[in-house]
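re: that complex we talked abt at group meeting.

here r the seqs, copy pasted straight from the sheet so there may be weird spacing, ignore it
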Amino acid sequence: MLTSTLDVLFLFIVATPLIGILGQKFGFRNLPIISAIIGFVSSLAFLPSLYTQVSESGVLIITLESSSVSLMGTCLEIDLLSVFMAGIFISIGLLTCTYSIRYMEHDTRLVEYYTLLLVVVGGMVGVSFAGDLFTLFIFWEIMCLGSYALVAFRKGRWEPVEAGFKYLIMSSAGSALVLYAMSLLYGMTGSLNFAYLSVMLSSLPNNAWVYLALALIIVGFGVLASIAPFHTWLPDAHAAAPSPVSAILSGIVIKVGAYALIRCLLLVFMPHQLAWQSVLMILAIFTMFVGNIMALLQKDIKRLLGFSSIVNMGYIIFALSIQTEQGLAGGTFHILNHAIMKALLFLCVGSYTYRTKTRNLEGLVGIGRKMPLTTAFFAIGALAVAGLPGLNGFMSEITIVIAGIDKGWLIPTILMVLNILLSMAYYLRLIHNLIVKKPVKSFERINEAPKSMLGIMVILAALCVVIGVYPGPFMSFAETAARAALNVQSYIEAVVG
Amino acid sequence: MVTASSRLDCPCICAICDGNLLSSDVEGGGRLISITYYLACSLGLLIIGLYCLVTKRNMVRLLIGLEILVSAANVNFIAFSAYAVPGSMHPLAHALAILSVAIGGCILAIGLAVTLYAYKHYKTLDVRKLKRIRW
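got the structure back, here u go
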């Protein structure tokens, strides 16, 4: 009905709680885990066939009622960028779900936990497949509801509750502003479909309402994409959530904000690009500086990683504002790379907290002597985010920098390079603390992380190295995705006819 | 390539753009209230909601502020749907309004649950007391 990938995810969203509750009655505690993993794997298995379908037709259009897209109908419109994003979302979801088996073993309410993981990933895949603002909004809210509940999942402590409330208020206010912008766009054009909106907005005369809608959309999606003045929920929520949930939040949930901005700005507001391009560039630079300066001051390792996520969202937004094919290719490639690196880092920190019960940087000094493998993976991830040549972060960052220079934006690009160097500073400090320094307190009875956790980290760390050494196929996929996003004319022709 | 002119002929759509408000009364069969009032009402609701989010300290009031924000958008959707096609209603906006009311209910439910736990931990509903997390 809604492509087999999404259908399977939603089937398992319904099935997992039923299976889990039945399993609890008969004493099988692991049934929801198995169900969730089967859900992720089978929906990932349907993705290659979707990819071939999309690459044949350019834009795959799926409607419920008729074969063609009507002005006032709703539909899914899947292009290569959607498939690219959906692949990232489901893979990271699968890896964190597998990691959670050991991490969450002492928690109760596991049925809810795994169902919520599926809900969040299902919502994100829906957002990336959406063909109109109506569908996008519905899936967006499904994703947001799941992530609110996951951030505040350990409700017995004060920290997740406080962070969850902040996140809920800020993010819901953002989506309410997006809803208001959607209503204005609907009033101006009578449609919510991206392609029709794009056609009609280009023929409308410029007026204040278009700019109000544009501003509200940038602010509303910018809250989830953690653009600088609206980023304050992110470090709190990332630090307070359980580590696998932090990996999902930082790896993929904030990327959905970037994806929605790419879709809306490049497709709907393309005629008004002069209005948003420089604004977005300035916001991106500001975001990088805020994230970096705050990250330098952190003592809590998860908050530090959260601020680093803000910096990386700054790079992605900067790549979007460059708006050339190379720039956007760098941005989409950085979305992939950052999802891998940040998921790896949060999962490593999850292993530290699983063994030592602390997130404080001072409490973790010298942990590398007790948990050498985890710390090695952490170092790979940290160096990759810091932009060490030979690892994946470097490849996408250098692509964005080159695109910025080609565009002629010398000063913003120099500021971005400065930020990459700044982030090198605190990641090296982190590695120095964890590996080189002698432990202040003795870590007795602390062993290496469990094997299932290490397995997930091995996969992610290997991906970091492989993409860094051999970026060809990943980079070309990101380039085709970026080309699909920038090729507005063929998208409109495929939908409108 | 479709031309947008067929939609743009519609008076109500131009109502936002060039302020041609009265023609919709003629074609739409004697509507008494022009769309400007609805827009003003929804903008008012938007400003009230944002004001509420910025100034209020009670957590429940913050959630009410969120609901006011969502209802501002809903008012807009319903008003525009009535004016989109003269003499009939546009079904898409109604579906969206109903769904957004339902989603608003879900957000309120989660928000109230979190508020309940916050009250258990902090013994207060004052949102300024929720600042134990240090930057």
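couple things i noticed - The longest helix of chain A spans residues 158-189. The CA atoms of residues 317 and 347 of chain A lie 25 Å apart.
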